[in-house]
Amino acid sequence: MADTSPQGRGALRRALKELKDAGYYRVDKVRLPNGTVRSEAHIFDTPQLAPAVPRPAAGERGTGRAVTPPVKNPEEEPTLPDEQTRAAVAALFRAIRPEPRLRLGAAEAQTLAPLVAQWLERGSTAAELAHALLPGLPSPMHSPAAILRDRLQRKMPPERSAPPPASYAECGRCHDPVPEPGICRPCAGLGTRTVAVGTGAAATPDGAARARAALRGRGPLVGALGT
Questions:
Q1: Where are the domains of the chain?
Q2: Could you read off the pLDDT of 36-88 as tens digits, one per residue?
């Protein structure tokens, strides 16, 4: 930052200190699984003030030691807030795994998780994410996270449309089809019920034979149909 700024390192150091004191800038030390420690800088839109450290009372002496932030262990302190974010981050990592140039850190993946979650809510899979994110990547690639964010936003699939409403409803009493929710006319006492004769698939062979005999004039029709 100092190399690209005309203010010099001293002015930049003072500016960062002011931002840090105001809660807009913070540097955390993170211990990686292999034991190494790295620094992560965070910049906020709103102040993130730490709890105030009590000052020593009159007549007391302080320790004289500077208070340093604790070293965080990613394995002991999970950074994923909920199941939806976990699923989105996992889907993103599965999608970009074939492309080594798209290496992301956990913090970068979490910033992209809300966009990925929208893709998943709209029915997309990790394979569809890969098809949208991987082809035609620029070279050289300066910011993988920025490229992924741009493609996630531009290629966002449309929302799922609601299923069409049913073209019929059922009577609340006899469960016969009716044109709109409620009860049918016979159940409301406004008409007689017409008994529909089916195709005979549920009839027994004996009943079907008697029905055919009745239709040919060799037996009572009412008895055959009532069997």
A1: 1-49+68-75, 83-136+143-154
A2: 888 888 887 777 655 444 445 555 554 544 444 455 554 444 444 588 888 99
Dihedral sign, Cα of residue 122, residue 149, residue 112, residue 90: positive
Q: What is the pTM of this model?
A: 0.40
- pLDDT category at 95 given cuts 50, 70, 90 is very high
Residue 89 belongs to what H/E stretch? helix 83-96
Give residue-wise pLDDT tens across range 159-189. 877 666 656 678 888 888 877 788 888 888 8
Distance from C-alpha of 193 to C-alpha of 203, rounded to nearest angstrom:
21
Using alpha carbons only, give the angle 43, 49, 52 rounded to the nearest 5 degrees. Answer: 150
* Residue 38: strand, helix, or coil: strand
Q: Report the alpha-carbon distance of residue 174 to residue 104 in Å, rounded.
A: 61
> Which helix (DSSP H) or strand (DSSP E) does residue 22 occupy?
helix 9-22
**CA dihedral of 60, 63, 65, 70, whole degrees rounded to 10:** -110
Neighbours of 115 (CB within 10 A): 16
Q: How far apart are CA 172 and CA 181, in angstroms?
A: 8
CA–CA distance, 104 with 106 (Å, rounded to integer): 7
Q: What are phi and psi of 37, to 5 degrees?
A: -120, 135
